[in-house]
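Can't attach files on this board, so I'm pasting raw text. These are the components:
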Amino acid sequence: MNQASQSDIAKRLQRSLYDDIPLVHALALQVRIATPLRVVFSAPLAPNINDKGCAFGGSLASLLTLACWSLLRVHTWELDWPADIYVHTSKLLYTAPIWSDFEVVASLSPEALEQFSHDFASKGRAAALPHADAMTVDAQGEPISALRLDARFVAMRPADSV
Amino acid sequence: MNQASQSDIAKRLQRSLYDDIPLVHALALQVRIATPLRVVFSAPLAPNINDKGCAFGGSLASLLTLACWSLLRVHTWELDWPADIYVHTSKLLYTAPIWSDFEVVASLSPEALEQFSHDFASKGRAAALPHADAMTVDAQGEPISALRLDARFVAMRPADSV
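---
Top answer:
Structure tokens for the assembled complex are below.
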């Protein structure tokens, strides 16, 4: 896919997130990259702080869940497949506080995406196991993961699209 | 503790959540019960919907994380212990969609609370493993858990309180 249409999809994703999910306005995320293998959001710290002044765990959990969900949203858009996509399980490990504006990065392997596509095409239902990180920097300014999320998502054809 | 002071603590918790964590305004939660063993929030569906019209996973993860955090917040308030309380890990299992206003319920066992208190008093640092559920009703109108969260929280004396 060329650069122009990638940026169109990022814009479409951002618009649909803001239109469909009220909490996204409070999270104030910006979609930077939106492909089925990699989704990147940026988010400002200020609207996402906790009582200690660093990033609130609930904001982070929301952003990482949305970034993982977006991988499958973008993929099913590209294939023009109507799909309801749900998070089923997630596991989060918080390892460092975040004290500034930050990015979240979600990924899915090409093999997992191919399996997902095969299952969805043949059964109208498929699962995938994406993961995501919220990024910060260490004392030396090197990027490190502050929070890792491993999730299982399920997608299915909406009842009214058969 | 008598009824009056329990309701004072619920009010204090609600005020501090709204004052300290901007995302709480978007979640629109109400604190119903606030004790160290049990915290109950109610939340309206409308500001917490997703693209499918049911409760957004990120809103739910935020509410359950906050409810668990609040168990230890209320406990350390009651003992007048300054404490920074962080979520360290969480595991979420989403089992049913939520289509109406809902409650979340967080719990900690008396034994776990006692161990937490003992460790915090002696070491200035302690961990606890609370859990929480987001409640909905099944087809027969019976209350069921729509989402279960199991978490590990860490509390420590703030650096400036020693």
